[in-house]
Design goal:
The complex is a heterodimer of chains A (about 400) and B (about 220). Chain A is of the alpha+beta class and about 400 residues long. Chain A is built from 14 helices and 13 strands. Classes of the chains: A alpha+beta (about 400), B alpha/beta (about 220).
């Protein structure tokens, strides 16, 4: 017999109540775990995909949209910019390197990106099979695209017009797969890469002629023009020196046709927007944890009244008041620990399930099988809530007047 | 003459200024078993609590086995009580969340002695409770519960066993049996037994008696 076994015996004696308390705490912990895992991994993802890109130059429009479309490949582009403007910009001494991007088509929902080999090196992509593209109509698949499409080297496929599934297919000019990239967790996994010239050639040909007129006359600013030959969708820019951060965006934005947006700034803005929602859910989860603490408190407090004779008897058997205090604290600690452990397991499993579901529908990969830094603080906080809720009952147990209790009729 | 098992001197106890117990001098030698008689409210339970060291008297001194309670620090008094004094409560107060055996093991643990599960089982067996060791107290009959409570009181082989009204709710046969168990266990661990009771049926079995509440 020891205090741990004694506390366990008391927890077992009111198993249902204990289980409910554990569950309540576990739900709060699990909710926060899911939030932590999601925000942390999304943030990590956003940082990884914008690493090495100091500035994105594209057509005028929403800067956030520009970043989303040409760095994260989730939104539609703001429009296109003339190649001549891009070439002029490249000569700017504040710029160390640029990577061109030409968007417009997709393959089974995955975007086809016309770019150069620097784009692959930017994300430290490695070829798993074959080689990088050289000639027009040669394409390299990202790992997820390859897994999804089940195509082999040398196979051909046709892109469809537009960035979502169901666009008109470019049947007349199929791509040939010359390489596959190894998975590396970056946006490359979800892209089909080819040369800028391939994208130009496909759009320079027949089927878009009627669109072009319409596009040029269209006054709708929300509908970007289709890519024309000698145009780019965006230019990814690396600064030559820190000074460029202060000067280059202003220079670019003053040119009427172009806009510059900083991925770091825009993704911070995006996280802030999402953050309001996250904070709200987090507040609810904290309330849940506090409720669990309150429930543990009520349970222990009520149990204490039923148990006053037990406590007095234990004193008469030689227990010091301190021992009773510790026994009650251990009980709170056991309930809290069980709730935390269950909550962690639940939270990670739930994240994995949600992550898989999101992966299927949104192509955002989030796993539950990882540990993020905030979890330690969460564990400590939840255990502290458990201990705190046991503290008052424990102090009351400490103060039990045994003679008075035993003399009660 | 050997040292008395306990000695009370000039004892007074008052609740809210009202005196409930007055005992000038009482000492008990080893091997003596005593009956504390008196009507309800005469301070019998109070006296037992004072003897057990769970209640400090308003006035006077208590010493058990040569240790003066008034001079012991609280934690040492707790330890001393766990080790040397066994108490059988009127309402038994077995701990219902634990098994019968668990109650005995708890007594050993709280007394700070080494835990001996074999001794505890043997004790239960000697009281006819071998098959009840792993039962919860609520599954026991009153007689079984009482024997379990006696077992818990004597499991640490105390010097002094205090029993509060052990026979009051029992018929003649059961009262005699309960008393037999207490006397036998006291003899077995060579302890002094003090029983507080208003049950006149058992007074003839004790040669040492003290009566509280003035009369008789």
């Amino acid at each position: 017999m020891n205090l741990l076994r004694l506390s366990l015996a008391y927890i077992r004696a009111r198993a249902l109540n204990s289980a409910l308390n554990v569950l309540l705490l576990a739900l709060g912990v699990a909710t926060i775990v899911v939030l932590l895992l999601f925000t942390h991994q999304l943030q990590h993802r956003l940082e990884r995909d914008s690493k090495g890109i100091d500035l994105v130059v594209g057509a005028k429009g929403s800067p956030l949209q520009l970043i989303l479309s040409s760095v994260y490949h989730v939104d539609i582009p703001t429009g296109n910019i003339p190649l001549a403007d891009a070439e002029k910009l490249k000569a700017n001494p504040l710029i160390k390197a640029t990577v061109p991007l030409a968007l417009g088509d997709s393959f089974e929902g995955f975007r086809i990106v016309g770019t150069n080999h620097d784009y692959v090196s930017l994300y430290e992509g490695r070829i798993a099979q074959g080689k990088l593209w050289e000639k027009p109509y040669e394409a390299v698949l990202g790992s997820e695209v390859a897994a999804h499409a089940r195509l082999n080297l040398g196979d051909t496929f046709v892109g469809s017009h537009g960035l979502v599934e169901g666009g008109e297919k470019h049947e007349h000019s199929p791509y040939t797969i010359v390489g596959m990239l190894a998975p590396n967790g970056s946006v490359l996994d979800r892209l089909v890469l080819t040369s800028v010239e391939s994208v130009w050639e496909i759009h320079g040909q027949g089927p878009h002629e009627e669109d072009e007129d319409e596009d040029e006359n269209s006054g709708d600013p929300n509908k970007p023009r289709h890519l024309q030959p000698q145009e780019l969708t965006a230019l990814l820019v690396q600064y030559a020196s820190p000074m460029a951060a202060a000067m280059l965006p202003r220079q670019v934005n003053s040119q009427s046709a172009l806009q510059a947006a900083s991925p770091a700034f825009e993704s911070a803005r995006l996280l802030n927007l999402v953050g309001v929602g996250v904070q709200t859910v987090r507040a609810f989860a904290l309330i849940l944890i506090l409720c669990a603490g309150l429930s543990v408190f009520i349970a222990l407090y009520n149990a204490l009244r039923e148990r006053s004779y037990d406590l007095a008897v234990m004193r008469s058997l030689g227990a010091s008041p301190g021992k009773l205090l510790v026994a009650i604290l251990i009980e709170g600690l056991i309930l809290a620990s069980a709730g935390v452990v269950l909550g962690l397991v639940l939270g990670h499993a739930l994240s994995e399930v949600l992550g898989n579901w999101l992966h299927a529908s949104q192509r955002v990969y989030i796993t539950g099988w990882t540990v993020v830094p905030g979890e330690l603080a969460l564990i400590l906080a939840a255990v502290a809530v458990g201990l705190l809720s046991a503290l008052l009952p424990a102090v009351l147990a400490y103060r039990t007047d045994i003679a008075e209790v035993l003399a009660r009729r | 003459m050997t040292e008395p098992v306990f000695a009370l001197k000039h004892l007074r106890h008052a609740y809210n200024g009202q005196e409930v117990l007055r005992l000038d001098d009482w000492s008990v030698a080893e091997g003596e078993n005593w009956l504390v008689l008196g009507p309800s409210g005469s301070g019998k339970t109070t006296l037992l609590h004072i003897l057990a060291g769970i209640l400090a008297p308003t006035e006077g001194s208590v010493s058990v086995a040569g240790r003066a309670f008034g001079e012991l620090p609280a934690s040492e008094l707790d330890r001393f009580r766990g080790r040397h004094i066994g108490i059988v409560f009127q309402r038994l107060h077995l701990i219902s969340s634990l098994t019968v055996l668990g109650n005995l093991m708890l007594a050993q643990y709280l007394a700070g002695t080494s835990q001996d599960i074999h001794a505890a089982r043997a004790l239960l067996a000697s009281l006819g409770l071998a098959d009840k060791a792993n039962s919860r107290p609520h599954a026991l009959s009153f007689g079984q519960s009482q024997r379990a409570a006696v077992a818990r009181a004597v499991v640490n082989k105390p010097r002094l066993i205090l029993a509060d009204e052990p026979t009051s709710n029992l018929d003649d046969a059961n009262a005699a049996a309960a008393l037999d168990v207490l006397l036998a266990q006291a003899r077995a661990c060579n302890a002094t037994l003090v029983i507080a009771t208003h049950d006149r049926r058992i007074r003839d079995r004790f040669e040492h008696r003290i009566t509280l509440g003035g009369s008789s």
